[in-house]
Known about the structure:
Layout: H1 10-18, E1 31-36, E2 39-45, E3 50-54, H2 55-61, H3 79-86, E4 92-96, E5 101-112, E6 117-127, E7 132-141, E8 147-158, E9 163-171, E10 175-186, E11 191-198, E12 204-207, E13 210-213, E14 219-228, E15 233-236, E16 239-242, E17 248-257, E18 261-270, E19 276-285, E20 291-300, E21 306-314, H4 318-326, H5 331-342, H6 352-365
Parallel strand pairs: 1-5, 4-6, 5-7, 6-8, 7-9, 8-10, 9-11, 10-12, 10-13, 11-14, 12-15, 13-16, 14-17, 15-18, 16-18, 17-19, 18-20, 19-21
Antiparallel strand pairs: 1-2, 3-4
Amino acid sequence: MRGMPLPIKDRDEERMREVGVDLSHKSPRSGTFIQIDHSVVHTSSIQEGLEVMDIDEALGRYDWLKEYWWKAVAIDADVFTAETARNPNHGYFIRAMRGAKIKDPVQACLYIGKEGLEQRVHNVIIAEEGSELNIITGCTISLLARSGMHVGVSEFFVKKGAKVSFTMIHSWADEVVVRPRTGVYVEEGGVFTSNYFCFRPVKDLQMYPTARCVGTEAIARFNAVLIAHPGSTMDVGSRAYLSAPESKAEMIARAVSKGGTIISRGHIIGEVPGVKGHLECRGLLLSENGVIKAIPELEGRAEGVDLSHEAAIGKIAEEEVEYLMSRGFPRDVAVSIIVRGFLEVDIKGLPDRLQAEIERMLDIMGKGL
C-alpha cells in the first residue's frame, strides 16, 4: 500500500468526487488507485482476492504479466499508443483472483493538476476464472488547469466465467484532448460491461474500444452517455468481434448536443454461426448549431449470424415540455426533466450498489443541463 500525501486540496478532492472517486470512505470501496499528473500517490485494496497497484510495481513483481503486455491493444495502433509504449507515465494494475467476488467497486482516479500536462498511462485489468470485478475510473482535471492531453491505454482480460463491469466517468475542460485506447478479451462464459459518461466540455475526444469474444457464450456490452457542449468534438464508438459460438454483443449510446459535435459509431462483426449483436443510438439536439452523426456497422462473416441496429436523432417534442409546464414546472426545469429521462440507459447485469452509484452520478452531472 502506498500512502496518500496529506492534505489533498479540497478543490481537488471535490473534482475527484464529481467523477465517482470518494476519498472520504463514505461510499463502500474495495480498493483505490490515485494518480496525479505523472505520480502514483496512493494504492490500496481491502478485500481478499483483490490486487490494486502501480503497473510498474506489478511488472516488477510478476514475470508472467509480460504475457499480457500489449496483447489486447496493438502497440502500433496509432501515434498515441506508440508514444505511450515509448514513454509511459505509470497506470494501474487491477486483478481479481480466481473465484473472488469483488462486489464493492474498485475506484481509480487519473488526475491532471498542471496546465498543459500530457498524461500517458497504461492499465492492465485481469479477472481470473469465476471472479467478479467492478471498477469506477474517474478521469478529470484541476479547476486551475484548462488544457492538457490524456492518453489511457487499458487492456482487459476476462477469464472463463468471470464478470467485469467498468464504469468510466470523464470531466475535462475546454482545451483538453483525450485519447482512451481499450482492448478486451472475453473468454468462455465471461461478461464484460463498459459504461462511459462524459458530460462536461472537452476539446477533442476520440475513443473506439474493441472487445473480442473468443469463448463460447462470451458477452460484451458497451453503454455510452455523452453531452457535447459548444466547441466540443466527441468521436466515440465501440467494436466487438464475435468469434465463438453463442457469443453476444450489445452497444447502446445516448448522445445530446448542446452545440458541439458527436459522432457515435458502432461495429459488430459476426465471425461464426449462432452469434447475436445489437446496436442502438439515440441522439437529441438541443441547439441549432449542434451535430450528431450515427454510424452503425454490421458485418456478417458466416451463415446464421443475428445482427441488428436502430438509430434515431431528433429534438425535444414541444408537447412534452408543455405538458410538464401545465403540471407546474418552469420551462427550463421541464426541459431538464426530459433530457434526464432521455439519458437513462438500462444497464444489464450490474450489482445494485454500482447501479445506485451510476444513478447518483447522473443526477450530479445532469444538474447543469
